[in-house]
Amino acid sequence: MMRADIVIIGGGISGAAIAYNLAKKGVKNIVVVEKHYQGAGATSRCGAGLRQQWGTKLNCELGKFSREYYENAVNELDYHGDIEFKQGGYLILASTEREMDQFRKNVALQNSLGIKSQVLSLDQAKEIVPYLNTQGLAGATYCSKDGHLNPFTTLDAFIQASKRLGVKYLLHTEVIGINKSGRKITGVVTSQGEIFTDTVVNAAGAYTREIAQMVGVDLPTHSERHEILVTTPVNPILKPMVMSFSKNIYTQQVPHGSIIMGRSGSHELDTHNQHSTWQFLEAMAKTATDLLPPLRKIRVVRSWAGEYNLSPDRQPIYSRAHEVDKFYNAAGFSGHGFMFAPATGLMMSEMILGQEFTIDVSRLSVDRFKNNELIIEPSVV
Q1: 88, 35 in Cβ contact below 8 A?
Q2: What pLDDT is stored for residue 269 in this prediction?
Q3: Which residues of 325-346 are buried (b: 16+ CB within 10 A; e: fewer)?
């Protein structure tokens, strides 16, 4: 028999960051339950980028907060290793004048929030990435403080810090049900037995909707397969993350020299299929080598797939449930759960403990979908 004050479902970076922040605020007896190994879901499969260049105020604020946090995370989390936060910037490319019009609005918003992004001409973009093929492009934006991290060591930093504060992790433990009496949760039923608790945090990534359904909560999210590939290491040729929404690509050279690149895929929904495909490799190779011709000479090592847990407006859901007491959801990150993890950890801890939000994320409640108050994020690959 096990008892917990709070059970967090999901051992990826969102769950670990929430656990760390709650423990740091003095909460005892926190248990994180993970179906596989730590980070087995989206965290270990993501592109691990960090950007502040968004089209909505809240996403800009979440990105800025997380960027500032990651800059000092090794000290904050007292981590013995390196999270490899490489701030080479994000160069975001526009294909049309209409897209550039949106980018100009985005940059004006970002600048008003203290994010030092800028609109670039194609000549200025080539100064940052000399190998860039600008044919068919209209312009770009750039923020030098954006960057890329190592998802494995970053997750480990949160886990080790939370463990030192007493958080327990149950790995290879599947949640198969949640018991309740009326509106009150009484326990989480797992493959290893029941954990008695009255408070549950749903941070289960691609499975957040299924977990919510266990207590009669319908999250308006779905999961979609996305794919990534990695190349052999080469000498430095790419300092920033290069991204295009209209061309459906993001690509970045990591510190040891390999280049990773990803795109949205077949729009295969809610199957939890994480197999990679030759169609992805073919489409990715064509787009990447057209945009950055030197990539034609680089060999692909492997590819893999992961899942975006998408919300209807492509912004996170930070919300308590109305249908049952003390059931909280951190869901719908739409591919950006890793980059927002520092903000997620803090905001969810403040929500659970009834504290004032550091960033007012009340508009990111699940209520916005019922009230038709969506806040559409235009800048998503």
Answers
A1: no
A2: 72
A3: ebbbbbbbbbbbbbbbbbbbbb
Instruction: For the chain, give the mean pLDDT.
Output: 96
Token pair 């190349």 is found at 231
List pLDDT tens digits, range 3-35.
Answer: 999 999 999 999 999 999 999 999 999 999 999
**Helix, strand, or coil (residue 21):** helix
234/277 same-domain check? yes
Residue 82 is assigned to a structural domain of this protein? no
Residues 277 and 246 in one domain: yes
Same domain, 293 and 353: no
**249 lies in some domain:** yes
Residues 17 and 156 in one domain: yes
What is the token pair recorded at 266?
Answer: 């077949």
Query: Does one domain contain both 230 and 303?
Result: yes
Question: Both 133 and 6 in a single domain?
Answer: no
Asked whether residue 63 is domain-assigned, the answer is no
In three state form, how does the secondary structure of 56-88 look? CHHHHHHHHHHHHHHHCHHHHCCCCCCCCCECC
CB 33 within 8 A of CB 326: no
Residue found by looking up tokens 């007493």 in the block: 166
The CB-side HSE value for 287 (13 A sphere, CA atoms) comes to: 21
* Residue 143 in this model has a pLDDT that exceeds 70: yes
CA end-to-end span of the chain: 45
For 266, the domain range is 223-308
- Of 274, 291, 308, the position where a domain reaches its end is 308
| 202, 319: one domain | yes
Q: At what angle do helices 13-24 and 341-352 cross, to 10 degrees?
A: 50
Kindly give the pairing relationship between strand 49-50 and strand 184-190: unpaired
- How far is the C-alpha of 337 from the C-alpha of 183, rounded, in Å? 29
Residue type (1 letter), 378: P
pTM for this structure? Answer: 0.97
pLDDT of residue 265: 74
How many domains is the chain partitioned into structurally?
3
* Residue-wise pLDDT tens digits, 263-283: 987 666 778 988 889 999 999
Rounded CA-CA distance 287/183 in Å is: 51
Same domain, 162 and 214: yes
